[in-house]
């Protein structure tokens, strides 16, 4: 299929898209009432709802989610018998952080060196504009060939889980044959990429008790068991010498078979200091997308300032374990718990408390939806083929949708390529990426409808 009429339409719609993104970025829609007035989020939600109504969406509604924010929903019926595709974006944004470090005001979309700068330009207000552009181009070229549901979340960045709980309580609402999450990004500008896996996560708190109370290190040190020393030894048991994660029973040798992440590029992206080695084994992609990774994210211990010569009676740590695709997060939780109990030294009393868990995700990249996306990307990015990358983190809503609609294919695409610097100061979007990904999405919807008719 040629991209030509769709691409020409979207090219002609780009000035309007820029004006709309300017309006949308101007809302200071940080979903944290302690930092920004709620009215900013409400105004952004109203803008999104109006935009959907203007495109002919029905049942447009501001959904009051249990975390006190609003997600915007709309439904655009397609031809009889056509499949339903859910398009996801979020209209809330990260706080601007250090405003003085922005080269232009964070809530004023500003063009500079061929990119559009502004908080949320890529993550994820641009994602909503991408959905609009794709639908407009299809309307101008014969019509939208599928039924479309749009959901624009109001608190993705806060991680308060409102939409997840709402979706669980209203399981019919977001039901679809295929789901496009417009909130990830190409591996780099110009390289069309679908994120096909997400690591899951389990979060545990471990407490060690060894004494009835703290003791003087001069009087008792050397024989009395120090809970902090026990904790240091226990946490060290979670890593091999080379830094690989070693949880008893949890394999860490899976190989990533998609796009590779060159080591030099990773070192630069991760801002690793000269002379400091990466940890783990295998390729970078193996380590961050296909294998478990443990991180000690907090330790309760006396701070250096004000430290006294004491042995600690008790110590506590919080441990995050990223769970690779193909593993069950609950099983990983059990293995990590058993490991912590088994490796606590000196008979220290161990208690382990689970404080969070999310399943990993892996898409079926041989499905009709992925085939349709691959063809769309090849047409929208001449000379390139679709790449599949993973994501080390999790998108909790993705797991919710995967659990609610196990038959639905989920594709993650979006504008957050590395240069977009999402979540940092001077976030920006590439207008070329917005244009090409909108073409991609339009062609995807058409290819997908065709595949279902065939
Ligand atoms: Zn986002």
What best-fitting shape do the alpha-carbon axes yield?
Answer: elongated
Largest sheet: 6 strands, mixed
Given helix and strand content, the structural type is alpha+beta
Bound molecules: zinc ion
Fraction of residues in helix: 25-40%
Number of helices: 12
The helix/strand order is HHEEEEEHEHEEEEHHHHEEEHEEHEHEEH
What does this structure look like?
- There is one protein chain.
- The protein is α+β, with helices and mostly antiparallel strands and 454 residues long.
- Helices cover 33% and strands 22% of the residues.
- It has twelve helices and 18 strands.
- The strands form five sheets. It has a six-stranded mixed sheet, sandwiched between helices. The protein has a four-stranded antiparallel sheet with strand order 11-13-9-14, with helices on one face.
- α1 crosses α12, α4 runs parallel beside α11 and α10 (368-380) crosses α12 (431-453).
- The longest helix is centred in the first third of the chain and has 23 residues, at 4-26.
- The mean pLDDT is 95.
- The structure holds zinc ion.
- Zinc ion is lined by residues 90, 123-124, 156, 183.
């Amino acid at each position: 299929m040629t991209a030509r009429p769709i691409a020409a339409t979207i090219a002609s719609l780009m000035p309007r898209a820029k004006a709309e993104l300017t309006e949308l970025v101007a809302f200071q829609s940080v979903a944290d009432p302690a930092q920004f007035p709620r009215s900013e989020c409400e105004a952004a939600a109203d803008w999104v709802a109006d935009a959907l109504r203007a495109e002919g969406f029905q049942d447009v509604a501001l959904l009051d989610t249990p975390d006190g924010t609003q997600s915007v929903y709309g439904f655009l019926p397609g031809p009889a018998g056509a499949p339903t595709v859910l398009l996801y974006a979020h209209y809330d944004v990260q706080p601007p952080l250090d405003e003085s470090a922005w080269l232009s005001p964070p809530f004023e979309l500003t063009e500079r060196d061929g990119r559009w700068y502004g908080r949320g330009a890529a993550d994820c207000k641009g994602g909503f504009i991408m959905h609009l552009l794709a639908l407009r181009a299809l309307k101008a070229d014969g019509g939208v060939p599928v039924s479309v549901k749009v959901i624009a979340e109001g608190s993705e960045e806060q991680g308060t889980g409102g939409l997840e709980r709402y979706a669980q309580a209203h399981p019919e609402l977001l039901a679809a044959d295929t789901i496009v999450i417009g909130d990830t990004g190409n591996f780099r500008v110009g390289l069309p990429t679908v994120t096909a896996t997400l690591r899951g996560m389990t979060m545990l708190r471990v407490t060690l008790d060894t004494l009835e109370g703290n003791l003087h290190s001069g009087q008792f040190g050397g024989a009395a068991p120090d809970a902090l020393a026990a904790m240091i030894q226990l946490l060290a048991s979670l890593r091999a010498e080379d830094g690989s994660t070693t949880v008893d029973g949890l394999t860490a040798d899976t190989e990533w078979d998609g796009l590779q992440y060159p080591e030099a590029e990773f070192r630069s992206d991760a801002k690793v200091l000269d002379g400091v080695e990466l940890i783990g084994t295998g390729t970078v992609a193996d380590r961050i997308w296909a294998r478990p990774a443990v991180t000690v994210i907090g330790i309760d211990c006396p701070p250096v300032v004000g430290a006294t010569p004491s042995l600690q009676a008790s110590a506590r740590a919080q441990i995050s374990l990223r769970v690779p695709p193909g593993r069950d997060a609950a099983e990983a939780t059990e293995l990590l718990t058993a490991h912590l109990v088994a490796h606590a030294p000196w008979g220290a009393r161990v208690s382990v408390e689970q404080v969070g868990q999310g399943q990993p995700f892996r898409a079926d990249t041989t499905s009709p939806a992925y085939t349709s996306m691959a063809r769309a990307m090849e047409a929208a990015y001449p000379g390139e083929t679709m790449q599949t990358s993973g994501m080390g983190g999790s998108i909790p809503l993705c797991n919710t949708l995967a659990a609610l609609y196990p038959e639905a294919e989920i594709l993650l695409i979006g504008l957050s390529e590395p240069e977009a610097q999402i979540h940092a100061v001077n976030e920006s979007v590439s207008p070329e990426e917005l244009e090409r990904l909108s073409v991609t999405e339009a062609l995807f919807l058409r290819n997908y409808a065709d595949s279902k008719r065939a």
